[in-house]
Design brief:
2 strands; about 325 residues; mainly alpha; binds protoporphyrin IX containing FE; 12 helices; two-stranded parallel sheet; disordered C terminus
């Protein structure tokens, strides 16, 4: 990570409008430290330049990040590929932030109410990322995304994600974390919503996707076969390097801004004149519709928390989600 483009990819966004990758819907690699290393900024640890960059990000988020070139029917594949990759990147960082918050809760020291709020907000943002990442049409998923995983390995699996084991028990919900009691119901609701959305997306994109997933979870065979974290990382343009929590925060904010611009431009389900896919019952739930509307605000709240700015009460990212279905 020595070249100037690699340095830029580790830095905060530095100009208004789209500045992610070399052009709209291009990708950047994600650099993460080895699993189990904290990515959370220690309280008050932001250097002045980074504090200014975060302030600019939050100000711009309140005003709206603007728009970029919209997609048409010919560029849908590029858009959904971008979402598949960048949505996973943001999910990986959220899992890491969640793991750190879980460690704070297990530790029992520090502000336990704040730790519970962070957990709930991060799970909420992950719900949004599942919707965003899985917003592809079935046609593009079947033609491009699914075969690209199959080409790496015919059993390519989400269970291989190196950053996931630390949060697996949280999402399975078998052992709810010992958060302050008053915060537990909201956290459990968001966890249940992630599972509902995962099922809904699987069912929308893949024949038998719902039962594949249900079967894997019920049978407990998730993660029981050989795992290939490096194959997973290479596929998702993720490299392991001794980067700092500040580098991770900057990479998170860069992606959140690009996502907000994409959604303000194209909506979550771009209307390019193709017949919409049937919406599975899991995704017809009002809680899912609320999550779609809250997608960008939830990302901005996550950005503020990750940058040590505390909960952002007011809904942010005005109008940024755009058309939803
Ligand atoms: C939208 C983005 C997605 C993300 C971030 C994601 C993430 C994950 C993760 C982390 C796991 C491991 C769960 C565990 O170990 O407890 C998993 C498992 C699984 N996911 Fe997804 N998933 C996504 C989309 C999909 C889609 C579109 C399908 C379509 C069928 C799917 C089907 C499955 C299945 C069947 C499993 C069980 C394990 C396996 O056989 O691979 N997921 N997913």
């Amino acid at each position: 990570m020595k070249s100037s483009s690699a340095q830029a990819a580790l830095g905060f966004s530095d100009r208004p409008g789209w500045d992610f990758g070399d052009y709209p819907y291009a990708l950047e690699p994600l650099a993460l430290p080895a699993p189990h290393r904290s990515v959370t900024l220690p309280a008050g640890a932001l250097p002045a330049a980074a504090r200014d960059a975060v302030d600019r990000f939050l100000d711009e988020a309140h005003r709206g990040f603007g728009t970029t070139d919209p997609v048409d029917a010919d560029s849908l594949e590029q858009l959904f590929w971008f979402r598949w990759m960048v949505g996973h990147h943001v999910s990986f960082v959220i899992w890491r932030l969640l793991a750190d918050a879980l460690a704070d809760v297990a530790d029992g020291t520090g502000d336990q109410d704040a730790a519970a709020v962070r957990l709930t907000e991060y799970v909420r943002a992950y719900c949004g990322m599942l919707l965003y990442t899985g917003s592809s049409t079935r046609t593009v998923y079947q033609r491009t995304i699914r075969p690209s995983m199959y080409r790496q390995h015919n059993k390519f699996s989400g269970t291989w994600a190196p950053d996931y084991p630390a949060v697996r028990s949280l999402f399975r919900g078998r052992r709810p974390p010992p958060v302050v009691l008053s915060r537990a119901p909201a956290l459990l609701r968001e966890i249940a919503l992630t599972n509902r959305i995962h099922l809904g997306v699987a069912s929308k994109l893949v024949d038998q996707g719902r039962s594949l997933l249900q079967h894997a979870v019920l049978e407990g065979d998730v993660g029981s076969h050989r795992t290939w974290g490096a194959v997973f990382d290479c596929y998702f343009l993720t490299l392991r390097a001794p980067v700092t929590p500040l580098d991770v925060t900057a990479q998170l904010l860069r992606r959140q801004k690009a996502i907000a611009i994409d959604l303000a431009t194209n909506g979550l389900y771009p209307d390019v004149g193709e017949d919409p896919d049937p919406v599975p019952e899991e995704l017809r739930d009002p809680a899912v519709a609320q999550c779609e509307q809250d997608l960008v605000p939830a990302l901005v709240r996550t950005a503020a928390l990750a940058a040590g700015r505390g909960p952002v009460q007011e809904a942010t990212g005005r109008g940024a989600t755009g058309r939803v279905r």
